[in-house]
Amino acid sequence: MTREEILAELKKVIAPYTTNKEMLAGIDERTDLIKDLKINSANLVDIIIDAEAKYDIEIDYDSADKMVNVGNCIDVISEKLTEKK
Amino acid sequence: MTNHILNHLPYKSSFRFVDHIASLSEDGVKGEYTLKPDSFFYEDHFENNPVTPGVIITEIMAQIGLVVLGMFLMLKETDHLPEEEGTMYPLLTSTDVSFYKMVLPGQKVTVISKKEYFRFGKLKCYVEMLDSDNELVARGMFSGIIKKIAIKK
């Protein structure tokens, strides 16, 4: 999967947890989940769990800690997808 | 074990809403609370017509359904509460509750909580409250974390 493909899928995963739909439509790799999208920090856990189910991967504590902006999320997801192969 | 948890709840008398833990496991908890007729909120909510406020119903569900279970799960993981136990506080991070029946002063309610997940320090549960006739009072999804808060002295 390319980074663009993961980004497109990630938008769907994030959608239920932000009310800022305009911002969500225009996110890029630098978009900060908490500061820009105003996602409740505890809901990051839900996003991680939803991403795990979507990609059939397991995200450990250290990786989860890195998932601050959209680019970091794509890094972790693509890393876990590569490990799976 | 259940007494141990009750003793560690950080709430003081007027805001402690757990009397008894009926059952407790890694998957969920069942507990009870009887609303005290002289509770501070009945005087004004409503004047001469006391009804338990929805926020208090929510708090009872959170204390039994999330905090008791959360402390149990943390104790299970570590065998003891974190060292600086005095500065660790349970915080509610989201709720989505629907209410079905009023609760009046002196009524006993039962809270049943089922764990959805406990990961990265966050506990999410589906929680129901029943009255003494076993009728549904409220239900909803609750999430919370236990956070270290620096207290300025």
Automatic annotation (TrEMBL), chain A:
Tree of life domain: Bacteria
> Per its UniProt record, what InterPro entries does this chain match?
ACP-like_sf
**This protein's name:** Acyl carrier protein
Organism of origin is: Mucilaginibacter glaciei
**Taxonomic lineage per UniProt?**
Bacteria, Pseudomonadati, Bacteroidota, Sphingobacteriia, Sphingobacteriales
TrEMBL record, chain B:
The UniProt transmembrane annotation reads 55-75
Sorted alphabetically, which Pfam families does this protein's record hold?
A: FabA
Name the UniProt key words of this record, in alphabetical order. Lyase, Membrane, Transmembrane, Transmembrane helix
Q: Please name the GO terms that the record assigns under molecular function.
A: lyase activity
Record protein name field:
Beta-hydroxyacyl-ACP dehydratase
Q: Which organism is it from?
A: Mucilaginibacter glaciei
